[in-house]
């Protein structure tokens, strides 16, 4: 059994969460990584449900 996809889409950082001092990682980097992971999970879930039954 595969893990369930992440169902809640990550929210972007609030305007006051980025200090604009070049942090590594920046809150925006963390958000982008989480968003990519969420998008991939959604795509994987959609692919799994469209496969024909064997």
From TrEMBL:
<feature type="domain" description="Oxidoreductase-like">
    <location>
        <begin position="10"/>
        <end position="46"/>
    </location>
</feature>
<dbReference type="Pfam" id="PF09791">
    <property type="entry name" value="Oxidored-like"/>
</dbReference>
<dbReference type="InterPro" id="IPR019180">
    <property type="entry name" value="Oxidoreductase-like_N"/>
</dbReference>
<protein>
    <recommendedName>
        <fullName>Oxidoreductase-like domain-containing protein</fullName>
    </recommendedName>
</protein>
<dbReference type="InterPro" id="IPR039251">
    <property type="entry name" value="OXLD1"/>
</dbReference>
């Amino acid at each position: 059994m595969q893990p369930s996809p992440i169902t809640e889409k990550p929210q972007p950082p609030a305007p006051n969460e980025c200090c604009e001092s070049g942090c590594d990682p920046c809150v925006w980097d963390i958000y982008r990584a989480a968003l990519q992971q969420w998008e991939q999970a959604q795509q994987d879930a959609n692919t799994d449900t469209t496969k024909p039954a064997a």
